[in-house]
Specification:
It is built from five helices and six strands, in the order βαβαβαβαβαβ. With 159 residues, the chain is an alpha/beta fold. It is globular.
Length: 159
């Protein structure tokens, strides 16, 4: 099979492009604010505003960490986490919400959710947790085990 000539130019996006973080949040302002904040830590960040776009981006960019909202317009964060876990078994998944009706520690553990983030999202601790998770991933470590709830640090149990 012959490949087309590229006249010496490299493709803009590699065939297996990989990003550090995929943020899935239906609030455009919140999503872009988090993305900008994480990019200041030299992370490669992609964004999606609903579950369908998130699945497309996850397949395309194979993120090391996914930060997803619990309430999305086309599915719940739990439904999306199930699909993402099947697609990306070693990716760390953080789920965030201001409303957590019916979401238990058992559900988080069953889905392999690394950390739950309470909204409003604490950007400083979030960045620390994401940078740590990306660093672990680049060392070849699998998705970290569930660590709990992020409110002022990098996880703990919910009280």
């Amino acid at each position: 099979m012959l490949l087309p000539k590229t006249s010496g130019r490299r493709p803009i996006i590699a065939a297996n492009a990989r990003c550090d973080v995929l943020i899935v949040e239906d609030s455009t302002i919140q999503c872009l604010e988090m993305a900008d904040y994480l990019r200041h830590a030299n992370l490669v960040v992609e964004t999606a505003f609903d579950g369908a776009a998130a699945l497309y981006s996850a397949n395309k960019f194979e993120p090391r960490v996914v930060l997803l909202d619990y309430n999305l317009p086309d599915m719940t964060g739990v439904q999306l986490a199930e699909a993402l876990r099947a697609l990306l078994p070693t990716t760390a998944i953080l789920i965030m919400s201001g409303r957590i009706d019916g979401l238990s520690e058992e559900t988080l553990q069953a889905l392999g959710i690394t950390i739950f983030v309470n909204k409003p999202v604490p950007l400083g601790p979030l960045r620390q947790a994401v940078v740590k998770l990306v660093a672990e991933s680049t060392k070849g470590e699998a998705a970290p085990k569930a660590k709990g709830w992020l409110s002022t640090g990098t996880g703990g149990t919910r009280h």
